[in-house]
Amino acid sequence: MDQVKVGLVGLGTIGAGVAQILLERGRAFGPKVGVELLLARVAELDRAKIRKAKVPAKLVAKNADEIIDDPDIQIVIELIGGIHPAREIILSALKKGKHVVTANKALLAAHGDTIFKTARKAGRCISFEASVGGGIPVIGALRDGLAANGIQTIFGIVNGTTNYILTQMTQADKTYADALGEAQEKGYAEADPTADVSGADSTHKLAILARIGFGMRIDYHKIYREGIDKIHLEDLQDALKLGYVLKLLAIGKRQGSQLELRVHPTLLPMDHPLAMVNGVYNAIGISGDWVGSTMFYGRGAGREPTTSAVVADVIDVALGRAPITFSKRGCFSSKPKMARLMDITKIKTRYFLRINVIDRPGVLAKISGVLGRNEISIASVVQPEWRHGKLVPLVMMTHTAMSGHVRRAMRQIDCLDVVKGKSRLIRVEG
């Protein structure tokens, strides 16, 4: 029975889970998958984490270099996250002839080209199923299971933290601040939730999925992004009355020679499959020209599902499947051209508009006039009973309109004397 020695860098939540599985089941994988996994060395600066993970003292390395320089270790697992020193550790491991497994989506989105080039030059691979969707095998599905297809769309919820917050706001009428606080108390959100609520985490994941699915290199800095941190409870309440639910979506669409890549809060009809995905769950829809529409659903984050994905990658590398796939697939080479991304102002969707206006004759006529001059037609209008002289919300749903036209119209509307404060808009899909 073949035995593969593994080195682990990082004993955070996921790292501790990986260490536990490898220590308890590494050798037992033999009869099941055909190879035994031996955790040979672990590097972690925080001694408390080492004690908590119950890693035997004889396995603790002084630093990551000690693992990278060990000629017997064949696979290095990087689970410290962030850009530095994770980038240097991964590149050094590849150059030393190690295969690498990681869950580091931010690093892959920002430095994927360099990492993939280094791995291929060294004749090694990097596997990263856990970087998107936790335990959902969406990367493997895009890379292998749907390989016969020309991918048309990638469309889904890829961040469990924001989905939990929006679910609490929708179902329990909690404010954004209260829902975020609850998510932090339950461990679903970090003390600093910026990466999640700003949409940055979802943008990293979309960049990775788009590279594999569409076969092009992606400059993730150019992906349009909005977060949920400026969403108001009344927006969700008004949308519900119209039959819509709010989700933070990562959207990728092939549009001729260009790609439409965007991350932002999106209203979906209540009967849309993604509208029913709640809590910390993720769901990613992928459409191919032969397979049609598919959906991948599951726990998108957390210790157990992410640990499961990391260990599955280690097994795939140890069996020799991952190195073959990595060396052959063009999306991991320097050959793919850089994708041309559509200008967000040219993208067409429907819109939800919320405008605070003064009760005054002719208000609706003024606003509809601005919309009409900008080629935007109104699908429906909802307004509460007018109270003379009071400030009231005017809620509108538009037909499909160009983003640039809508933005221009909203700037003009906000300048009207009957409008108070900054109006809000949310895109609508489905």
Give an overview of the whole structure.
This protein has 430 residues and is an alpha/beta fold. 38% of the residues lie in helices and 25% in strands. It has 16 helices and 16 strands. It has helices spanning 13-25, 29-33, 47-53, 64-68, 86-95, 105-122, 138-145, 160-172, 176-185, 194-197, 200-214, 233-241, 303-318, 321-328, 363-373, 403-414, and strands at 2-9, 35-43, 75-78, 99-102, 126-127, 151-157, 224-225, 244-255, 258-269, 281-288, 292-299, 348-358, 378-382, 391-398, 401-402, 424-428. The strands form two sheets. Strands 6, 7, 8, 9, 10, 11, 12, 13, 14, 15 and 16 form an eleven-stranded mixed β-sheet that branches. A five-stranded parallel β-sheet has the order 2-1-3-4-5, with helices on both faces. It starts with a strand and ends with a strand. The relative contact order is 0.12.
Explain briefly what this protein structure is.
About 40% of the residues lie in helices and about 25% in strands. By secondary structure, it is an alpha/beta fold. The protein folds into three domains: about 1-125, Rossmann fold; about 140-300, Dihydrodipicolinate Reductase, domain 2 (2-Layer Sandwich); about 345-430, ACT domain (Alpha-Beta Plaits, 2-Layer Sandwich), CATH 3.30.70.260.
Write the layout of secondary structure elements.
Blueprint: E1 2-9, H1 13-25, H2 29-33, E2 35-43, H3 47-53, H4 64-68, E3 75-78, H5 86-95, E4 99-102, H6 105-122, E5 126-127, H7 138-145, E6 151-157, H8 160-172, H9 176-185, H10 194-197, H11 200-214, E7 224-225, H12 233-241, E8 244-255, E9 258-269, E10 281-288, E11 292-299, H13 303-318, H14 321-328, E12 348-358, H15 363-373, E13 378-382, E14 391-398, E15 401-402, H16 403-414, E16 424-428
Parallel strand pairs: 1-2, 1-3, 3-4, 4-5, 7-9, 9-16
Antiparallel strand pairs: 6-8, 6-10, 8-9, 10-11, 12-14, 12-15, 12-16, 13-14
Helix pairs in contact: 1-3, 1-13, 5-6, 6-11, 8-9, 15-16
